[in-house]
Amino acid sequence: MEPLTSTAVIGKQVAEFRDRLGWSAAALADELQKAGVQWKRPDVTKLERGLRKSVTVDQALALAAVLNVSLVHLLVPPGDGDAPYRVTAEVTEPSSRVRGWIRGLFPLRRLPLVDDVRKFWVVVPPDEFEAMQQGQCPCCGGRPPRDWRTRPRLSQEGQGNG
């Protein structure tokens, strides 16, 4: 059995996450419209049934935001382990490897190897690269994460109220 295309995977994941929220396809389309993606119920059902050829980056980001999941979870199912994942027509890698690659943790094995690990992370700020080399979180550099539940909320005027 051939691995699914990335668009088919996104469709499968959207159906699962939408179902978890108890939303209809029409409800998801309504939420996408609020986020600026002009989809209607048939657009959602075509995606979920694998009848859509592609999803734009903007659409994928809106789907992830509206469904309140990380983009990586739309692109590569969390429970797929080492199941084959089709990155391109010519490159298939284990799903777990693709998840790490999307997160920027390491290069894919089938792409040309680089002689210096820094070349893969050339666009990563030096402090994040150093944190990764030390086994720390590249986003926070090993600092304790902020508690998202206690951050100040913005008022309607865009000003913090606390």
For this entry, give a set of tags.
162 residues; mainly alpha; 434 Repressor (Amino-terminal Domain); 2 domains; two-stranded antiparallel sheet; 2 strands; disordered C terminus
Describe the structure.
The longest helix has 16 residues, at 6-21. The chain has helices at 6-21, 25-34, 41-48, 57-67, 71-75, 95-102, 117-120, 126-133, and strands at residues 84-86, 92-94. With 162 residues, the protein is mainly α. The chain contains eight helices and two strands. The chain has two domains: 6-75, lambda repressor-like DNA-binding domains (434 Repressor (Amino-terminal Domain), Orthogonal Bundle); 114-162, no CATH class. Helix 1 crosses helix 3 (41-48) and helix 2 crosses helix 3 (41-48).
Secondary structure layout:
Layout: H1 6-21, H2 25-34, H3 41-48, H4 57-67, H5 71-75, E1 84-86, E2 92-94, H6 95-102, H7 117-120, H8 126-133
Antiparallel strand pairs: 1-2
Helix pairs in contact: 1-3, 2-3
Task: Offer a quick outline of the entry.
This protein is mainly alpha-helical and 162 residues long. The protein contains 8 helices and 2 strands. It has helices at 6-21, 25-34, 41-48, 57-67, 71-75, 95-102, 117-120, 126-133, and strands at 84-86, 92-94.
Terminus-to-terminus distance: 55 Å
Output the radius of gyration.
19 Å
How many helices does DSSP assign? 8
Shape annotation: globular
Give me the strand/helix succession.
HHHHHEEHHH
CATH superfamily of the largest domain: lambda repressor-like DNA-binding domains
Helix content range: 40-55%
Our count of domains comes out at: 2
